[in-house]
């Protein structure tokens, strides 16, 4: 664990800021957050899932964050609250505030004279900001990033090193883009003509809303004609592929390695599992949960959890079972034939 | 939609260049392409799929591109042609020509004195061109790109920012490589020896033909001994992995997130779906179509469409059904046993 | 094939260094390794798999490396050894030694005055080394790489161009990181609170052991609280995603495009297939082999091979068969009903 901070807070100071109620000594001070397992007396841990109760019993934490149902399960000074995980996230942010921009353009950065970079923004070493691009107040453009012609970066936004933003794309406020992210590369638009693929110019943009976070090496392609849109509060993990003209609804979270094909529309507050896929041109309703490794091939009109992953087994058993998949229709027909066969010599009518 | 251009064309000027026939007023001029849905009177839209006919009825486009079968479906001035999507791609290229190189090496770029960069090529800020590398006429090396020792970039080729080309790899003419592409990293060659993996030096190259486009963050590994080869006209989407010694035949198109394992050979004019996989050392014939999420585990000797994705369901139903997969062989045996059981007291001979 | 070297060795010189026994003329000299198929008389090839015996018969190689069982299968001068593939790897390393660092910091690199870079280390053009970071003896930081505050790079380690190491991460000795690798980006830690996702600060590090190799565009996220750990000798292929707080045991090899979800623990000497997945919080024992395209959803307590991929078919057949998956539970129930049905006329009560 890193130790960027030497701040300390008493439990009373924490609940004064964040709410919740202290059970036990509210004057206890802590300096950092920790897991129950590795906590030391100067740290505060949390319990969000009762299956970790044994770790609560043995933790060395100076304080813990718990829900009301387990408040009696430990004598350690504790903050009791409705949503321990979210509360913990807020406590952690107290001890680990986001790094602020260090205003200024590094001497090795290359910023076009027509670009507008806010005075309190930071542009790191070897970053490149092209013609007419805009970088908003307090934003950070990490080392080696590229901001193309006319692209707009909002305020309070952080691009970690080696992010690429193609021309004319728009990134909102308080957005975080991790290293290797590519926003606005051409969508996969090709037309077959007399034995050759012709490129379809991709003239839409990518528009990313506020409070979005995008993980390392994720790619979001620009639209073919209209824009690709990532709405406010969307959270994308690493190595996700978002194709041209996709729209992802506000506050949807997508786990790593998922792929959303062209022109698909994903609703708000969806949760999409890792390495899942959504085929092109589909519409996914709000509040849909898609399981890991699941390919969605039809639009989904109502909330719920949808799954389509093959269960794993020992290879020897999988072999025996999987081979039957190629005869499944035949097997079903044979069962139907058996059912139709008269159990008795005389015919039965249906 | 971006608006880089202020060019306008009449329908007559378009058909003079590209063929096709005008129905309606050929003097109508348009300034950009658009979707039927968002078109304005100064734009031209297209209909390539009859399921969008309702949008044709309501579009505000000044002109449309259609096939002969629907020429009577609208009173809007229209270009009638055999392949509306390919025609549209060509019209779009009229309004949105590829950006030309801006000749010269940026002051912040680092070009080795033994490298040969064509006089009309462009080398962007903070790009690096190493010993004896070659950059051909009119090519663009974007900001932050790296061109390794002895690598060769053809003519009219564009590397978007932050592309990496390892030493001695060869990129053809009129190639487009999007940001984050890595060409020529070592293939995954390891040999187990007394409890330790030994690295197998990867001494082949990557050779990319002409008119290839490779999407953002796609990786193509160098060969172990011989070369990895991407033939002319291949189109690779984003986040594809091409392992060492793969050969991809001319004009094959591969959608995002697919993976081709070592020494596999893919034919010409194949279409490979997103997040699909091809196992090592296989041979895939020409004109094969592989569906999204499908793993190919045996060579494919003839054209056709091949599929192997698990159909998704509501999780509750999937659970009930998927559990049976682990008993599928047993189920098949039980059906066989029932079939063998005499339906009547007397024995039946097979 | 590239030809960086003009070294030559006789078979005797090779076996003097690496062991094994020569059959035939030990004075024969070779200058490079090659495949049986493309070998020339000045190269040495190898046969590790008997299915390539026909190629042994027709090869033009000057010498070959073979196992004892096939030593009589060719008249070509040959080195006989226990593990031809590992032996070949070592011979190839003789002819193709890893490139050494070219000591010095390039004029265009940006190295903070508080960073410690070994005198014989190499820092390439436009690379950035931040505050208090350490680069060990003989290591190479490629062009455009970023080494964050307080990060530590061991000795004899090579970062190819455009690698990103976030602050405070630790990379061991003799490690190879290929282009586009991102080490230490924030894990996907979010907590839902009143309709908004709150970010959970990710304050752990990534710690990478010695002799690890990580392929192009692979991402390893920093821990949420404790560290993410890649143990010694681990080999990761391209485009792999390793989530926060994962631990990968020593000498495990993972093929391209696999994803390991948060807090999963993978044992030692595992072999994990391409595009496979391991769900969060699982424990995988040592020596487990996971097949390509397989999702592991439960902990695995014992060595063996585990599989869960859908077998592919021609699309027409897949359609007929796959549709039955949605009725599999019903089919199983129908078979059970048939089995329970009396073979004879009399009724049975339920």
Overview of this protein structure:
3 copies of one chain form a homotrimer. Chain A is of the alpha/beta class. Chain A has 2 domains: 9-95, MurE/MurF, N-terminal domain (Udp-n-acetylmuramoylalanyl-d-glutamate--2,6- Diaminopimelate Ligase, Chain: A, domain 1, 3-Layer(aba) Sandwich), CATH 3.40.1390.10; 104-306, UDP N-Acetylglucosamine Acyltransferase, domain 1. In chain A, the strands form 6 sheets. In chain A, strands 8-11-14-17-20-25-28-31-34-37-39 form an 11-stranded parallel sheet, with no helix packed on it. In chain A, strands 9-12-15-18-21-26-29-32-35-38 form a 10-stranded parallel sheet, with no helix packed on it. A 9-stranded parallel sheet of chain A has the order 10-13-16-19-24-27-30-33-36, with no helix packed on it. In chain A, strand 22 and strand 23 (196-199) form a beta hairpin. Chain A starts with 8 loop residues before the first strand and ends in a 10-residue tail after the last helix. At the A-B interface, strand 22, strand 23, strand 38, strand 39 and helix 4 of A face strand 4, helix 3, strand 40, helix 4 and helix 5 of B. Strand 40 of chain A pairs antiparallel with strand 39 (304-307) of chain C, so a sheet runs across the interface.
